[in-house]
Design a protein that fits this description.
The protein has a single domain, classed as Rossmann fold (3-Layer(aba) Sandwich). Helices cover 35% and strands 30% of the residues. Strands 2-1-3-4-5 form a 5-stranded mixed β-sheet. Helix 2 packs across helix 5. It is elongated, with a radius of gyration of 29 Å. The model has no long low-confidence stretch (mean pLDDT 81).
Amino acid sequence: MVKKKLLTLAGVVGILACGACFLPELPQHTTPPPPPVHIWLDGVQSIRVEVANASPSHHLDSAALARKIADAINEQSWKTKVNAHVGKQAEGEDAVLAITVLSETAVPAKSGRLTFLIKDSATLTRLDGALVWRETEAENWLMQSADNEGYAEATWKFPGFLNQVDNQLSARVVYRLLYGR
């Protein structure tokens, strides 16, 4: 019985000595850092934002939307190294982002409710005239809904609705500009 105990003890000491204590440390497998964000703006680091509203209804304020778009670009500047300014504030910009709101419409949905569609076109042009980025007639569907078509016109006048539209539209335009989606 003593022999079996000694043999078991020797086996445990051998396993600990060879397998757990004296082997070199295993290499740590870490995931590599994500690749850097690639912004293909051809050396553009400062953008002047200009917005025009060519829609028949003119619900959106061009100046307010331009400020929101510039703010959305500046929120990404820590990653992109691209800054934006609006109109007269701009100095020393490399390019101009010109956005035209083409239409602001309420569209009936199958459920009998309305959704809002904002169409815009945008170009980013360097000061030397080179076209850096363009999108034409981009459709921006807004999730705000109204119960009937007569209610749509009143919805544009609700407090905060235009601010919500500006926020959603600016986020979408800037995302497509900076990340190509």
